[in-house]
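Incident log, structure service

09:12 report received: a user says their structure output differs between two submissions of the same chain.
09:20 pulled the input from the user's history:
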Amino acid sequence: MTRNDPVDPDNTAPEWAETWASALQGGSGPRYLRLVDFIERAVAEGMLVPGERVPPQRSLAALLGVDLTTVTRGFNEARRRVLIEARGPLGTFIAAPRAELERRVDLSMNIPPPPAGIDTDALLREGLSRLLLRSDADLLMTYHVGGGSAADCAAGAKWLEPMLGKIDPARVAVCPGAQAALAALILAFTEPGEGVLSEPLVYPGLPHALAQLGRRLETVATDAEGMLPDALEAACRLHGARLLYLNPTLQNPTATTMPETRRRALLEVAARCGLRIVEDDPYWRFAPDAPPPLARLAPAQVCYVSTLSKTLSPGLRTAFLALPDAASRTRVLAALRSFSLMAAPLTNALALQWIEDGTAARIFEGVRAEAQARQRMAAQTLGPAACENAGIHLWYALPSYWQARELAAAASTEGLAVAPSTAFEQGLGTTGNTANAIRISLGATGERTRLQAALRRLSALLASDRSTPAQVLV
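09:34 re-ran on a clean worker, output below:
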């Protein structure tokens, strides 16, 4: 009997049945996607090997107790992901790994992974169809109110509720991405030449925006819990700064979360010094038992930024600003209009519809489940230095024989892109902090099997001591 004999009429199971019998067990979401996830997982774990013939669709449908359409749809998606390949009359087989001569594997771009158990193509088609049925197409293709309409801001307030509790939609502004929101806040609350305070390892978009807008970045020393309150007070007095940037939950790049006691201590300093805080908080929803945001503890002091780019998809280009009051909202929107009149109406309307009808929450749950699976994979592959956390990236401290910049260059020759600590460093020499690490982002690679192969290559590279160059023989 071969591995692909059909289900025997005498109830004698074919050899492949034991492997495939659990294909739909566990997990969530549509059954055809659970079948695809099983194939992907079985290939990664060696249960299915390249060149192995897969069962006939009718036989597999009978074994799993589903209709043929479910299996056919699953196989079509598996072919799209290059997990299986059809060989004409010979049948369908597990595909060989794709040659890595194509584009490199990106472990440097911090974007959310594809949501587990979610058919994104179907959601987009359905969402856009419903949007066009409910909306006037002409209104979706013309200018809209900067900062969002009342309905837009109400949807933004709904998205922000898990973080901030119920807030007045009049305090919310809808922006075309977090970077635009940050630029508008800088323009609104600082003057040219002024210093803005931040931690010394910081999201690279901040120093870039400050440099383009003619402001300075001044760094404040940190410890394992985040920015030091005493150092913040000293920096305020030294630089006369009026604006502080913090990313306190699953911080980019270090993936650390500032405890509530430290948050409250920094708020006390900011109140004494008349310091306004920009809280960039894209990852709060990923963190289990996350402390309350600074903006929830002191809403009058904090401008809160939450983007869908890190939780749902960068393509939506929608971010929400929660501002202390109507006056600060007016001021920020005036700054925003100087370079961006509005968020793109079509994608913005889709995002807000998804928030209102619950689709956004469902997508996020899929993204979070996939991120957790990828964090487990990274921890298992890279070892103790890659402790599992809840976000979409991890911070990997390098062994002494590797320096971050050299490791990133060596990884590039292996077809991998990682972000060295030098890409995030600002004024480390003046604060006493040191960093020799890489940020590994887990979402940009669509297929989990390809990510695992990339992590294995990275693990082998990290384990190789290249402090002494190998002799080249020709």
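09:41 both user submissions now match this output. Likely a transient worker issue. Closing.
09:42 reviewer note: The chain has three domains: 17-94, 105-117+366-463, 120-360. Confidence is low (pLDDT under 50) at residues 1-10, 470-474.
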